[in-house]
Amino acid sequence: MTDPDDGAGLAASMSGRLDSLTFVDRTTEQVTELLIDVIADWGTEQGWRVYRRAASVVPLPPPMSGQRSVIDIACARPAAPPVVIEVDHTDRRRTVEKLLAEAEAGRVPIWVRWGARGFVAPPEPIRMVTVPVTARRGEAGVRLHSRQPARQLPPPEHRAGPVAAGPPDSLFDSTGGS
């Protein structure tokens, strides 16, 4: 079993990296691929070897039971357990089972969930990183996803002294401006 504090720290670091990610009108496949690219870059920046579509410890169900399932990203770390990362926009029981099996094999499991709906926390020791996005129907009914930065406006300026009234506006003049 892996150290849960290690997973929590890794998830927080990855979340910090994904927080700055923005995009507009991407398909489901494009968003998933973009997240995988950013996560792979994050792993490389840590100095780790990064593998996309790495073999999982979980075999595929029949009739392909001789083959292994895959993990979206696996990171080999010197002197630390490997990190395995799955990226999904849906809540998949098979993903949870796969990540639990990876944890049993000594890997640190992280589940990156993205979407517009609420996210249910997975069982321990799986760590979840959430990426909220908005969705809309584009042309031909294609679902498009966007993630815009939070718009933070500066507070309005306030005057220190009293505010003096200006000349009356003729619109509000009861004498009709005469």
Give the topology.
Layout: H1 4-19, E1 23-26, H2 28-45, E2 49-59, E3 68-76, E4 83-88, H3 93-104, E5 108-115, E6 127-132, E7 134-137, E8 143-147
Parallel strand pairs: 4-5, 5-6
Antiparallel strand pairs: 1-8, 2-3, 3-4, 7-8
Description:
With 178 residues, this protein is α/β, with parallel strands linked by helices. It has one domain (4-144): Trna Endonuclease, Chain: A, domain 1 (3-Layer(aba) Sandwich), CATH 3.40.1350. The protein contains 3 helices and 8 strands; from the N terminus they run H-E-H-E-E-E-H-E-E-E-E. The protein has helices spanning 4-19, 28-45, 93-104; strands at 23-26, 49-59, 68-76, 83-88, 108-115, 127-132, 134-137, 143-147. The N and C termini lie far apart (87 Å).
Task: Please state the CA-atom Rg, rounded to the nearest Å.
Answer: 25 Å
Shape assignment: elongated
The total tally of domains equals 1
Any idea what the CATH architecture is?
3-Layer(aba) Sandwich
CATH class: Alpha Beta
Kindly summarize this structure in a few lines.
This protein is 26% helix and 30% strand.
Question: Which features does this protein show?
Answer:
alpha/beta; single chain; Trna Endonuclease, Chain: A, domain 1; 3-stranded antiparallel beta sheet; 26% helix; 178 residues; 5-stranded mixed beta sheet
